[in-house]
Write a structure and sequence with these properties.
This protein has three helices and three strands; from the N terminus they run βαααββ. It is an alpha+beta fold. Strand 2 (about 55-60) and strand 3 (about 70) form a beta hairpin. The two termini are about 15 Å apart.
Length: about 70
């Protein structure tokens, strides 16, 4: 089992391109909070399948800037 999270950093609008470094920083900083919210929101699922808490999480950062277009585990 694995969880795949997609984060849109930049591309599609010039304003997103301008603030790509800030968006990347915020997504990376707040991602642990988001993952805790998933577990809290789907508490009954995690209660029935506690092995999901050990699942691999893949995070896809989508950007037209190669510095921010990456995949992290």
């Amino acid at each position: 089992m694995s969880l795949h999270v997609h984060c849109h950093i930049s591309g599609g609008h010039f304003l997103l391109d301008l603030i790509a470094p800030l968006r990347y920083y915020i997504f990376r900083k707040e991602l642990p909070v988001v993952l805790k919210a998933f577990v809290h929101g789907d508490g009954s699922l995690f209660s029935q399948h506690p092995e999901l808490e050990e699942a691999t999480v893949w995070v896809y950062f989508h950007s037209n800037n190669p510095n921010f277009n990456r995949v992290e585990c």
